[in-house]
Design goal:
By secondary structure, this protein is mostly helical. The protein is 67% helix and 2% strand. The protein has a single domain (5-258), classed as Growth Hormone, Chain: A, CATH 1.20.1250. A two-stranded antiparallel sheet has the order 1-2.
């Protein structure tokens, strides 16, 4: 969906030419895409309203789990922060990408053309997911996560320190390495939680609030130092993700009790 939607959104907002006349721009330019999105979400809500979901039972009398609540597990808490950082970085880049590529010092594209290139950013994540699934059959998830985080950092710094096609494709390439981050962090954070797994899952889901906070912070930073340098913020998020893959995901042994 994130690969195809930019093409439709660009067409609906900017038209077939991909050009946007700021003199005639108004709120009506984006009404149709948002009305379509609202309708789709309403239909989805109705489906889940009447859909009977199975009740999951994690109880196993022979399973030993850590005592205490889910918050006592260091790797879970650090994983929640990892989800916060990942979603924040991904949404920040996706949100600022059009402005970044429209910058004359970067690619100088029109907003319409730049918006279509969003599909490559999100499409890279789709392709990388398949590649990552194959790679992680041979290499541990933590190492792959650390590698992808490091590559994302490198691509961001290559992009913001260059111009033209190099800057454009380096930033779009970050999407490829975003691919396995969310499911990998999620899985690593839920290791050995036993009966606390549902609570841990809820904590991780709440951490996606990073997608609302980090883009806001990058916007403030962009107003202060410029759009290009503001990408240092998502780069710092990827630094943490690389740390989590190497060190933070390690399970700290706590006192165990037999699950009842």
């Amino acid at each position: 969906g994130t690969t195809v939607a930019p093409f439709f959104g660009s067409y609906l907002i900017f038209g077939a030419s991909g050009e946007h006349n700021s003199a005639t721009a108004s709120a009506s330019d984006v009404q149709i895409p948002y009305l379509i999105l609202a309708t789709a979400l309403l239909l989805l809500a109705l489906i889940f309203l009447y859909l009977k979901l199975p009740k999951l039972n994690h109880t196993n009398a022979n399973t030993k789990v850590f005592s205490g609540g889910a918050w006592q597990h260091r790797h879970l808490v650090l994983g929640a922060l990892g989800i916060f950082m990942y979603v924040g970085a991904e949404v920040s880049i996706g949100s600022m990408l059009v402005n970044y590529l429209a910058n004359p010092d970067v690619a100088g594209l029109s907003e319409g053309k730049a918006s279509k290139l969003l599909a490559y950013f999100w499409g890279g994540a789709m392709v990388g997911r398949f590649i990552g699934a194959l790679v992680m059959q041979k290499i541990s998830g933590g190492k792959v996560l650390a590698f992808n985080g490091t590559m994302a950092i490198a691509l961001i710094f290559v992009s913001i320190s260059s111009t033209g096609s190099v800057a454009l494709w380096a930033m779009l390439g970050v999407g490829l390495f975003n691919s396995i981050m969310f499911p990998t962090i999620f899985s690593l954070a839920l290791q050995k939680l036993g009966k606390h797994t549902p609570q841990g899952s809820g904590i991780l889901c709440l951490a996606i609030v990073g997608g609302a906070i980090v883009p806001l912070l990058q916007g403030v930073l962009a107003d202060s130092v410029g759009v290009t340098l503001s990408f240092i913020l998502p780069a710092l998020c990827y630094v943490y993700i690389a740390y989590y893959g190497l060190i933070g995901c390690r399970v700290t042994e706590l006192k165990t009790t037999k699950e009842v």
